[in-house]
TrEMBL record:
<dbReference type="InterPro" id="IPR029044">
    <property type="entry name" value="Nucleotide-diphossugar_trans"/>
</dbReference>
<keyword id="KW-0808">Transferase</keyword>
<dbReference type="Pfam" id="PF00535">
    <property type="entry name" value="Glycos_transf_2"/>
</dbReference>
<dbReference type="GO" id="GO:0016740">
    <property type="term" value="F:transferase activity"/>
</dbReference>
<dbReference type="InterPro" id="IPR001173">
    <property type="entry name" value="Glyco_trans_2-like"/>
</dbReference>
<feature type="domain" description="Glycosyltransferase 2-like">
    <location>
        <begin position="11"/>
        <end position="137"/>
    </location>
</feature>
<protein>
    <submittedName>
        <fullName>Glycosyltransferase</fullName>
    </submittedName>
</protein>
Length: 310
């Protein structure tokens, strides 16, 4: 057994379908992690673009690659989770990335420091199609009360222990095509999970016109969230009410109750964001994995680690 094998194993699943434009950065952001005890599973639903050729280029660094027809994202996730043997589990969609090479090491360190925590999530930076910074929300501790009202947890920034996953059934509900992460996290809560929000940027969430989160929000997302609110709250929330609760979580003021105070805080935050955008000057922040000096050594170390594990 190597020193890395004594560290908690982190299993990550990437569901994939025709994301050839982005998936290489997704994969590279996982395999370029400084933390070596990672089990990486990619499940592709027979992509017809360049995705398959990209998967072939990285096959030595991916533990399990499944390429077969599936019934969508949730089905792909469930296939991938069946191959996960890690102590800590997460999934990263094929258009998102981890924020830097130490992301997983940071997450594991927090889990080690907080053995009572079941689910941990960090902060999200939203990026555009070209990888340039768009915006982010202020850090706020987890609020169970607010979470029942609005899904504010960034999925690509979230990790959970195998124990809570198994306690909650060890599956993603295939009934949900959009809000499957919200359903899973609410199910974690139902099973007594303790959540922790950390003040670290963990994931890069990509926003673009053809993105699933954008074009399915009204047709699929809202009805699914309404179903969850009915189940957990006993009532459904109007879209505006839900958005106001989401803003209340981040800005501590509900715009529906105190619009002028909310506007002041929101404008102040937007000034800070505008400064950050100006500092970055439209430089892509999703290409770090191709530029860090030690990346080739990390790739070599990961290959060696996989051979030793085998």
């Amino acid at each position: 057994m190597t020193e890395n094998d004594r560290l908690p194993k982190v299993s990550i699943v990437t569901p994939s379908y025709n994301q050839g434009k982005f998936i290489e950065k997704t994969i590279a952001s996982v395999v370029a992690q400084s933390y070596l005890n990672i089990e990486y599973v990619v499940v592709d639903g027979l992509s017809t673009d360049e995705t398959i050729s990209i998967l072939e280029r990285y096959q030595e660094l991916i533990d399990t690659t499944i390429i077969e027809a599936d019934e969508g994202q949730t089905d792909a996730l469930n296939k991938g989770f069946k191959y996960c043997s890690g102590d800590i589990i997460a999934y990263l969609n094929s258009d998102d990335c981890y924020a830097n090479s130490d992301t997983i090491a940071t997450v594991v360190n927090y889990f080690n420091q907080h053995p009572d925590v079941d689910v941990l999530y960090g902060q999200r930076h939203s990026i555009d199609e070209d990888g340039c910074f768009l915006h982010c929300d202020p850090y706020r501790p987890f609020s169970e009360q607010n979470f029942y009202l609005s899904d504010f947890i960034p999925q690509e920034c979230t990790f959970w222990r195998r124990s809570i996953f198994e306690k909650a059934g060890a599956y993603v509900d295939t009934e949900f095509k959009f809000a499957m992460d919200y359903e899973l996290f609410l199910r974690f809560l139902k099973n007594g999970a303790k959540f922790l929000a950390i003040q670290e940027v963990v994931g890069l969430f990509r926003e673009y016109p053809s993105q699933k989160s954008a074009h399915l929000w009204h047709s699929t997302g809202l009805p699914e969230i309404a179903k969850l609110h009915q189940l957990y709250l006993g009532r459904q929330l109007e879209e505006t009410e839900m958005i106001n609760y989401n803003k209340e979580h981040f800005y501590r003021v509900n715009p529906g109750h105190f619009p002028e105070i909310f506007e002041f805080y929101e404008n102040f935050w937007h000034v800070l964001i505008a400064h950050r955008i100006n500092v970055l000057k439209h430089k892509p922040i999703d290409e770090w994995m191709f530029h860090i000096q030690e990346v080739h050594q990390i790739f070599s170390d990961r290959k060696a680690h996989k051979l030793l594990a085998f």
